[in-house]
Amino acid sequence: MKSVVIECPGELQLQDRPLPEPAAGEVRVKVKYASICGSDVHIWHGHNPFARYPRVIGHEFFGLIDATGSGVDSARIGERVAIDPVVSCGHCYPCSIGRPNVCSELQVIGVHRDGGFSEYAIAPAANAYVLPEAIPDTLASLVEPFTIAANISAFLKPVPDDVALIYGAGPMGLTAIQVLKGVYKVKTVIVADRLEERLTMARENGADQALNNSTTPLAEQLNGVQPTLIIDAACHPSILSEAAALASPTGRIGLLGFSGEPCTLTQQSLTSKELSLFTSRLNSHRFPEVITWMEQGLIQPEKLVTHTLPLSQIEQAMTLFEKDPRSCCKVIISMH
Ligand code: NAI
Ligand code: MN
Ligand code: ZN
Q1: Cα–Cα distance, 291 to 268 (Å, whole number)
Q2: Which of 92, 99, 204, 260 shows its CA 20 to 30 Å from the CA of 326?
Q3: Could you tell me if 24 and 71 are in contact, meaning their C-beta atoms sit under 8 angstroms apart?
Q4: What is the pLDDT of residues 211-226, one digit of tens each?
Q5: Could you give the percent of the chain with pLDDT greater than 90?
Q6: Atom of ligand 1 nearest to the CA of 172
Q7: CA 274, 202, 171, 9 torsion-angle sign
Q8: Which of 143, 172, 231 should be mutated for ligand 1, with most atoms under 8 A from CB?
Q9: Over the stretch 103-121, which tens digit does the pLDDT of each residue have?
Q10: What is the atom index within ligand 1 of the atom nearest the CA of 239?
Q11: How confident is the model over 23-59, as pLDDT tens digits?
Q12: Residues with Cβ within 6 A of ligand 1?
């Protein structure tokens, strides 16, 4: 089979590899479509602290179950499935309270173990979620990025009267806009980005207001409006202190970033307004709800897709994704 392998940082290869066999409790998936995420690019360039090499990348993928390991019902062969990349131990403290995404032995498919930019991939059977016919093959890999927005929303508990501010209109910001508008019916969603093209995408994805903060600070543009809910999907370390300053008393702030750089803020900026700060990593069992949202048409994954390329052009696809944020959002890779 053909697989996209990062041999070592900087070295992307399309290799011929032997077909893997599913072990006990696992399924093999004949991958049909996958999508590129920033973390794939980071693993390629050696900027992901969790990655081990060589690695088949890709954690957003969809396909058909074509083999089952022992203990897995062979009737599952042929199922159309999206794969949850979060593999957990099931018995540590976070697992025991339903938060396998921060399992003390967390393994992410496509990061810690081989992933879905490949003609075939292996996953635990429990991570393979059957999709209804209403979700087309070409969009099915986008369940995973929406689970990020679903997970942080579960902490933030959006309500229609919230005034939401989202930093960043990349794939993460856009999924967050769609979830706040389409699922939680938040009346006012304001988005900030530095690229006009991305602000245009924010409007197309449902933002009520899209503000360019490259030259004029947000505080000036908000005219005293105090957001009650803020999501940082741009993830620069300078954003948290600004978010705390802008937030309404009792506001909730959600952080998604993994920067290792310090960010400076005072206790007073949080405590004086009794702000709540939430962080969110990957997803904890959010596939079923996102699949339902897609089936019901509450979110529109097609709005994120700007390009589709074959597996043979993976390096061009990843380069386009990385270098061209003005024209590029989600890139779908077709495997066969
Ligand atoms: P992206 O790089 O495509 O989008 C970020 C956007 O933020 C860009 O459009 C950029 O112009 C904008 N931006 C940068 N600085 C800004 C600022 N100061 N104010 C306003 N906008 C600003 O990245 P993507 O894929 O949307 O991911 C966003 C972040 O989310 C990344 O840092 C990534 O590591 C993180 N992430 C976190 C996950 C989690 O589970 N916690 C999962 C996936 C991504
Ligand atoms: Mn992703
Ligand atoms: Zn665990």
Answers
A1: 41
A2: 260
A3: yes
A4: 999 999 999 999 999 9
A5: 99
A6: 26
A7: negative
A8: 172
A9: 999 999 999 999 999 999 9
A10: 18
A11: 999 999 999 999 999 999 999 999 998 899 999 999 9
A12: 38, 148, 167-173, 192-195, 198, 213, 233-236, 239, 256-258, 280-282, 325
User: Which tens digits make up the pLDDT trace of 278-333?
Assistant: 999 999 999 999 999 999 999 999 999 999 999 999 999 999 999 999 999 999 99
Helix (H, G, I), strand (E, B), or coil: what is residue 67? strand
Cα 130 to Cα 16: distance, rounded to the nearest angstrom: 28
Tokens describing residue 224: 């005293």
What is the mean predicted confidence (pLDDT) over 252-273? 96
What is the signed CA dihedral for 106, 111, 112, 113, rounded to 10 degrees? 120
d(CA 145, CA 290): 10
Ligand 1 atom index nearest CA of 195: 11
Q: How far is the CA of 150 from the centre of ligand 3 (A)?
A: 21
Yes or no: say if 182 and 298 are a contact pair by the CB < 8 Å rule: yes
Residue type at 64?
L
Q: What is the pTM of this model?
A: 0.98
ipTM of the complex: 0.99
